[in-house]
Amino acid sequence: MYKEQLFDHLTEWVYPSQPKEQVFEKIEELFIALKDCNSDMLKKLLRNS
Amino acid sequence: MLFPVRFEDLDPFKIRRKLYKLANEGEARETIASLQLRLKSHFLDEPLESVVVLAADIFKEVVEKMESWDIVEQFFRFKSHIFTAPFNQLNAHRLLDNLQAYKIRKNDERREIINQLKLRIDNIYADEKIKPEKLEEYTNGLVMVLQKTSEIEKFSKVLSGYMPKYNELKHFNA
Q1: Which long-range contacts (C-beta less than 8 Å, at least 24 apart) are formed by B41-46?
Q2: CA-CA distance, B134 to B87, in Å (whole number)?
Q3: Alpha-carbon gap: A5 to the closest alpha carbon of chain B (Å)
Q4: Which of A1, B28, B44, B89 has the highest count of CB atoms within 10 angstroms of its CB?
């Protein structure tokens, strides 16, 4: 859920000119790096993206 | 914001570091705010500005550096002995000094009261002269059962009504 929301936000507002596949790949890497984070942390990530 | 302007600069581990920093700062702000509220609720007349400064100092010196919330709880438990001046004259180090001095004073008082208990036991059996190690054993037994200094003090005043006769002392059980 957080991953999808972040993808939508980043592709629409932060990196709109970037190919979506590249954004998707980076998000996958990011979520691997954040695998120990709880939902509060992921909410914080979304709020500050 | 956690994400860089240029997509090329996006590094997941940098974002992780920034996210944790943000979370820690958020936690610190919440803890300081709760300390401020607690201080203000105990000391309504202190100006808010002094409360804010003291709360931030307690957080930095006690919660962060000493990693102890228990000490903060002790500040409030013994507040009349710890917050001994207007807040603008207090800081975390002074509170710690006051807590230390209070504990030393209470420990001295406890030692003195236990010593009185021992002397009273000794007086009860003055004619028989009980051995020092036995005296120590009876005193320690009572201290372990009574625990609180105030209870030890109260009991030592009515001790003679409860202690067994000398010939029954070998069955002594606190």
Answers
A1: B42/B76, B42/B79, B42/B83, B43/B83, B43/B87, B46/B86, B46/B87
A2: 51
A3: 15
A4: B28
Q: Categorize the per-residue pLDDT at B49 as very low, low, confident or very high, splitting at 50, 70 and 90.
A: very high
Q: Which two tokens stand for residue B4?
A: 């860089």
Helices B92-124, B149-157: crossing angle, 10 deg rounding: 30
Nearest chain A Cα to B1, which residue? A48
Give residue B133's domain range. Answer: 105-171
| Count of structural domains within chain B | 2
Phi, psi of B67 (to 5 degrees): 50, 45
Q: Max Cα separation, chain A?
A: 31
CB B39 within 8 A of CB B46: yes
User: Which residues does chain B have within 8 Å of residue A41's beta carbon, measured at their own beta carbons?
Assistant: 19-20, 23
pLDDT digits (tens, 9 = 90+) for B147-157: 999 999 999 98
B98-B100-B106 Cα angle (round to 5): 100
Name the residue facing A45 among B10, B13, B19 (closest C-beta). B19
